[in-house]
Specification:
This protein is an all-alpha fold and 92 residues long. The chain is built from 4 helices and no strands. The N and C termini lie far apart (47 Å).
Length: 92
């Protein structure tokens, strides 16, 4: 069982993970969509930029469903790392 101090911080840490931890996921997902979409360059940029806010909202909703703050932060970090590798290591 977690200590009372950690149990008290569980809610705020989960909210912080949902608000702050999902932003890199949404931005990197938007960049990934803009990079690999089979459209013209201007349309790809517009698509990626326009989808960041809806992706961020969806990621926040999913992060709130996590069982713990540690799991929410872990999933955000893992998804950010995977999207970063896809965006910058995979050739177009």
């Amino acid at each position: 069982m977690a200590s009372p101090r950690l149990a008290r911080l569980e809610g705020p840490l989960r909210v912080l993970a949902a608000l702050v931890g999902t932003l890199p996921v949404a931005v990197l997902a938007g960049v990934c969509l803009a990079r690999f979409a089979p459209l013209s360059e201007g349309a790809r940029g517009t698509l990626g930029f326009a989808l960041v806010v809806p992706l961020w909202g969806a990621a926040m909703c999913v992060a709130f469903l996590s069982r713990s703050a540690a799991r929410a932060w872990g999933v955000c970090a893992a998804l950010s790392a995977v999207l970063l590798v896809v965006n910058y290591a995979v050739p177009r």
